[in-house]
Structure formats: structure tokens, C-alpha cells
């Protein structure tokens, strides 16, 4: 989910509501609703789908982190970090992960 802070907070809140209602299937379907359609369909038909449902509660932290990340400009969110930071991604990942790592590096440069 990418959008305004209010949109992302609303998305995270709805995900958490589904978890709290003991609806892990609904929560996982909601979690992937904005992913590319063919990726989501492949995920749902894969052998790991049932494992994702079983562990849907573990994504609560991801939803909360996404809401926090969108709550303010990145340099503002990271300005209190005083320790060295290593920003890295894996060899095989989505392009957006490389963009995120680069954004972290740039934000830290701007706030220090």
C-alpha cells in the first residue's frame, strides 16, 4: 500500500481489525489486496498460502511499520538515529526494495 499517511494508517488499522477478529484469511487477503494481481493470484495458489494465513499475526508489525513510515518525511523519522546504519537488500528482490534502501541512505544524509 502506497498512499497518504491517512490512507496507509487506515489500511494498517483495517488489517489489525481483521487480526483482532480472528480472521487470518481475511487479514492476509486484505494485506495483499494492493499487490500486482498476478503476484497475488500466484501467492494464493502456492503451497505457502496456508502458512501465510497461519502466521498472519506476524505481519501486524509490518502493517504498523508501514503506517509509521508514511507518518512523516523520512529524514524527520530518521533524524534521531546516531549509530551507523547499513542499508542492504538481497540479490533477488523487488525493485522497490532497492529504491527503499537508496531512500534511507539519502534521508540519513539529509538529516545529519
Shape by Cα distribution: globular
Question: Total helix count?
Answer: 7
Radius of gyration over alpha carbons? 16 Å
Poorly predicted runs of 5 or more residues? none
Kindly state the number of beta strands. 0
How far apart are the termini? 29 Å
State the secondary-structure class.
mainly alpha
Biggest sheet details: none
The number of domains is: 2
Which percent band covers the strand fraction? Answer: under 5%
Order of helices and strands: HHHHHHH
Give an account of the 3D structure.
- It contains seven helices and no strands.
- The chain has helices at residues 5-20, 24-31, 37-45, 49-54, 60-69, 74-78, 95-111.
- The chain folds into two domains: 1-71; 74-112, no CATH class.
- 63% of the residues lie in helices and 0% in strands.
- Helix 1 packs antiparallel against helix 2 (24-31) and helix 1 (5-20) runs antiparallel to helix 5.
- The protein has 112 residues and is mainly α.
- The mean pLDDT is 93.
Offer a few descriptive terms:
about 110 residues; mainly alpha; 2 domains
Write the layout of secondary structure elements.
Elements: H1 5-20, H2 24-31, H3 37-45, H4 49-54, H5 60-69, H6 74-78, H7 95-111
Helix pairs in contact: 1-2, 1-5
State the gist of this model.
The protein is an all-alpha fold.
Amino acid at each position: 500500500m502506497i498512499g497518504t499517511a491517512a490512507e496507509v494508517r487506515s489500511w494498517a488499522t483495517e488489517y489489525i481489525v481483521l487480526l483482532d477478529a480472528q480472521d487470518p484469511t481475511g487479514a492476509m487477503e486484505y494485506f495483499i489486496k494492493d499487490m500486482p494481481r498476478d503476484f497475488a493470484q500466484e501467492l494464493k495458489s502456492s503451497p505457502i498460502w496456508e502458512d501465510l494465513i497461519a502466521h498472519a499475526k506476524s505481519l501486524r508489525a509490518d502493517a504498523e511499520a508501514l503506517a509509521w513510515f508514511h507518518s512523516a518525511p523520512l529524514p524527520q523519522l530518521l533524524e534521531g538515529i546516531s549509530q551507523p546504519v547499513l542499508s542492504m537488500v538481497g540479490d533477488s528482490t523487488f525493485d522497490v526494495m532497492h529504491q527503499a534502501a537508496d531512500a534511507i541512505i539519502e534521508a540519513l544524509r539529509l538529516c545529519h
